[in-house]
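Q: What would this complex look like in 3D?
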Amino acid sequence: GDSVTQMEGPVTLSEEAFLTINCTYTATGYPSLFWYVQYPGEGLQLLLKATKADDKGSNKGFEATYRKETTSFHLEKGSVQVSDSAVYFCALSRNTDKLIFGTGTRLQVFP
Amino acid sequence: GAGVSQSPSNKVTEKGKDVELRCDPISGHTALYWYRQSLGQGLEFLIYFQGNSAPDKSGLPSDRFSAERTGGSVSTLTIQRTQQEDSAVYLCASSSWSGGETQYFGPGTRLLVL
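A: Here is my prediction, written as structure tokens for the whole assembly.
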């Protein structure tokens, strides 16, 4: 069945460091790919998405590119801030089908 | 309302009792989803509604769990004879059929079974 694998956390960075959180998926066909973020004490929020191969999703300085050849959707940000500290979830879905989530990666950014 | 709302925000119950969790989706959203977030299992899908029908119930963990949706809007998730392993945050999400696949999440109901 479909699945999502993302890197174990926590990821600990200093402010202004470069961030990469790896995400790979297993699925037949062409699912849509998502990154959701959960800030401390808050609900899940959509961060960005891509619906077809080679699409790049971007928001708040974060980017991820849908790579069909490597079945990956890695999240990147050039310069993280303390306010980016949160748990990040990679996910996939088909049309209006359920979201299948990775296990989540906790990011901690220190001043 | 502007977003997905859920009630109650917190629920403490005794083992063996029944609980009802409520979800109000974004107005006009025809698709509604229930998920569960727990420490040991991460984020798990429970059930999906399109309108009032549930084409995918594959994530419901046992027959103690049921859900309904009325009027294509509000949904209720019911857990009968609660067990300690039911303790989790129950999340509801909705999406617009015509808007594609983005699901918008509510704040969740934190359930603690003593």
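A: To summarize the key features: Chain B has a mean pLDDT of 92. Residues 72 and 80 of chain B are 24 Å apart (CA to CA).
Q: Very helpful, thank you.
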